[in-house]
Each structure stands twice: as structure tokens, then as C-alpha cells.
Specification:
two-stranded antiparallel sheet; 10 helices; mainly alpha
Length: 268
């Protein structure tokens, strides 16, 4: 199947967002796949997990090299999230009926529920990051984040379940949690988020056995390659901007994307 050039241009923007903010890749990936490439939202969530997981893995390797990945957060927050997202993709998502709700001739379908849930999560995450105030961290600099491992595990499960349902890597939720609740400086939160996203997204993709026959691998690999190129540019730009710009840009970017999704869903 032939896809419009705009699909691949948008894929580059997805990668730029992921490399720059450590999040937002899946926020853009799903709308791009649905609105540009014509992929169904449910199948698009599977594509999104693969694309974001693979590109996040490349970006996380760079942050790990710079000492900007918190290993404690990977264990306390990441592991419970991995288990939750795998179970959500394997059992919970397939069990949701379609339509989800029906009143006479009016109904809410499974696809619409996925997109609306995406928008709600994005608004909450965007507002949180705009209001947050955290300091920067230099590569290799020691930090003393305020940690509660039990709370991190509970939050990891919740984030894994929710992001597993909507096919998101979850960086737009993970970054605020690590920066605000754990007290990690923003760049350390971004690096740790990328590592968690990579593992969680790829494991979640493995849970999509029911969608395996619908995946168009040639398109998925091309799309992922373009995202990776955009991500490399984003990582380079990340080193040249201030922390206030990163934090504010992330929040406003998420809010703008949420508004676009809501507008499209209301008009269709």
C-alpha cells in the first residue's frame, strides 16, 4: 500500500519530539498513523508501541552513556509498569466491547474511546509539566531524589495499565511523575523515562498476538526508520536549549496535540 509523503514528514516530527522531550512520541505516533496513514486506532496502538519502543531504545542508550538514567527508578517504577502493560495488551484491551456504550442510535466505539482517553491523559500531563519547577542536572552529577519505592511501584502499575490500553509509550505521564513526585531533575527524568518507555513499549508490542496478522511490516519498518532519524536531531537539539524551555515546551506541546485530537474527533 502507498502512503502519502506527509505521513513520513509527520514521522520525522514524532522522532524530533521523542529525542527532544523524552516523551511525546506516542502522543504523535497514534494520530499520525490514524489521520495520515489511515490505520485503525486499535492497530495503530500496536504500531505505536513498536515505533516508540525502538526509537526510545536508541535515545536511552545515549542518555545512559551520559549518566542520565536513574537505575533505582528503572527497578521501582519500570518493572511493575512492564508487567502491567503486557497484561493490558494481552488480556484487557481485547476484552473491551465495541461499541463500548450505546444509547439508541448514539454510541461510543472502541476507536473513539482510545482517542479520547489519549487526549485526557495529555491534558493532565501537559498542565503538570507547565506548573512544575525543577533544576537541571549535569551528566554524571549525583542527585538525591525524594523516593518512595512502594508508591513508585503502584504508580508504575497504573501507568502501565493506562498506557497499555491506549498504546502509548507513556513518556508524557512518566516524565511528570519522575520530575514532580520523585524530584528528579528534568534531564535525568527524560533519560530514565526513555529507558522505561523502550522496555515497556516493546514488551507491550509482544502482547499484541491478536493483531499479528494485520501488521504491515514493510510500512512499519520504513516509518520507524524515519522516526529514528528525527529522534537523532531531537537529541542533538536537547543539548542546546535551557531547562525552562524544555519544561514549558513539553507542556504546551502536549496541550496543543490534545486540542487537535479533540477537534478532529468532534468533527468526524
Amino acid at each position: 500500500m502507498n502512503y502519502p509523503v506527509a505521513t513520513y514528514v509527520a514521522a520525522a516530527v514524532v522522532g524530533l519530539s521523542l529525542g527532544l522531550f523524552g516523551a511525546g512520541g506516542s502522543i504523535l505516533t497514534l494520530p499520525v498513523l490514524v489521520y495520515f496513514a489511515g490505520v485503525s486506532p486499535v492497530l495503530g496502538t500496536a504500531y505505536s508501541l513498536f515505533v516508540v519502543g525502538f526509537t526510545a531504545l536508541l535515545a536511552a542508550a545515549n542518555y545512559l552513556r551520559l549518566g542520565l538514567v536513574d537505575r533505582g527508578a528503572l527497578l521501582a517504577f519500570g518493572v511493575p509498569s512492564l508487567v502491567a502493560v503486557f497484561l493490558a495488551r494481552l488480556y484487557l484491551l481485547p476484552s473491551i466491547p465495541d461499541p463500548v456504550v450505546r444509547w439508541g442510535e448514539w454510541f461510543v466505539g472502541k476507536d473513539e474511546l482510545v482517542m479520547v482517553a489519549f487526549a485526557v491523559m495529555m491534558v493532565v500531563a501537559g498542565v503538570s509539566m507547565i506548573r512544575a519547577r525543577r533544576d537541571d542536572v549535569r551528566p554524571g552529577e549525583a542527585t538525591q531524589p525524594r523516593r518512595s519505592f512502594l508508591l513508585a511501584a503502584v504508580e508504575g502499575v497504573l501507568v502501565g495499565l493506562v498506557t497499555g490500553l491506549v498504546g502509548a509509550g507513556g513518556g508524557f505521564v512518566i516524565v511528570p511523575v519522575l520530575a514532580i513526585r520523585w524530584g528528579l531533575p528534568i534531564r535525568l527524568a527524560i533519560g530514565t523515562s526513555l529507558a522505561i518507555i523502550a522496555a515497556k513499549s516493546l514488551i507491550g508490542f509482544l502482547g499484541d498476538v491478536q493483531l499479528a496478522r494485520q501488521i504491515e511490516w514493510s510500512f512499519l519498518i520504513r516509518f520507524t526508520a524515519v522516526v529514528c532519524l528525527g529522534m537523532l536531531v531531537g537529541v542533538a537539539v536537547n543539548r542546546r536549549v535551557t531547562i525552562a524551555t524544555l519544561r514549558g515546551g513539553f507542556g504546551w506541546f502536549v496541550l496543543l496535540a490534545a486540542a487537535v485530537i479533540v477537534a478532529i474527533e468532534l468533527c468526524t
